[in-house]
Amino acid sequence: MAIRDILVFPHPNLRKKAAPVETFDEALRTLVADMFETMYDAPGIGLAATQIDVHQRVIVIDVSEDKSEPMVFINPELLEQDGMNTHEEGCLSVPGFYETVERPEKIRVKAFDEHGKEFELETDGLLATCVQHEIDHLNGKVFVDYVSALKRDRIRKKLEKQQRKAG
Ligand code: ZN
Q1: Res 167: pLDDT
Q2: Distance 32 CA to ligand 1 centre (A)
Q3: CA–CA distance, 167 with 161 (Å, rounded to integer)
Q4: 137 C-alpha to center of ligand 1: Å?
Q5: What is the pLDDT of residues 133-149, one digit of tens each?
Q6: Active site residue 102
């Protein structure tokens, strides 16, 4: 297993649309293991493959307090969305910034696990927010797209400045 580098907004590759996974092989399971290691190390509660510059439709999530509920969503598809609610969101690709985002409160999602087994899940609250946030990444969308252009621009400038200092 290995910890991978996480792309930071406004990296252009965060805008790439990820392709569906077609083969459920060892390479995929290594990717999933690396994604969990990277997410737990960060630490974060969700990570999309897009964020480590792998453009396949793979998401890992663990919203538990003690890293006890790892969940894998491959080729996820939202079947139903219901209600609206706001949650404060953050993102490992937008370090240090938290913004209120409005999204559907309840979702039903269909996906495959890392062995190619299909499952469906109905959920709400933090997990529903997280699944939608990560699916956005697979479609080239970042949560700051939901805030005002002015705010987004301010975040972009601050992160660019930090990157220059770090690099
Ligand atoms: Zn994110």
Answers
A1: 67
A2: 16
A3: 10
A4: 7
A5: 999 999 999 999 999 99
A6: no
Q: How far is the CA of 152 from the centre of ligand 1 (A)?
A: 14
Tokens of 87: 């949650």
Q: What pLDDT score does 1 carry?
A: 78
Q: Which two tokens stand for residue 153?
A: 């621009």
Contact 133, 143 (CB under 8 A): yes
pTM of the model: 0.96
DSSP string for residues in 75-88: EEEEEEEE--EEEE
Q: Which of 8, 7, 49, 6 is CA-nearest to residue 30?
A: 49
Question: Given 77, 114, 134, 160, which residue is catalytic?
Answer: 134
Distance from the alpha carbon of residue 25 to the mean position of ligand 1, in angstroms: 26
* C-beta of residue 131 within 8 angstroms of C-beta of residue 119: no
Is residue 3's pLDDT more than 80? Answer: yes
Q: E strands within the chain? A: 46-48, 58-61, 71-82, 85-89, 99-103, 106-112, 118-124
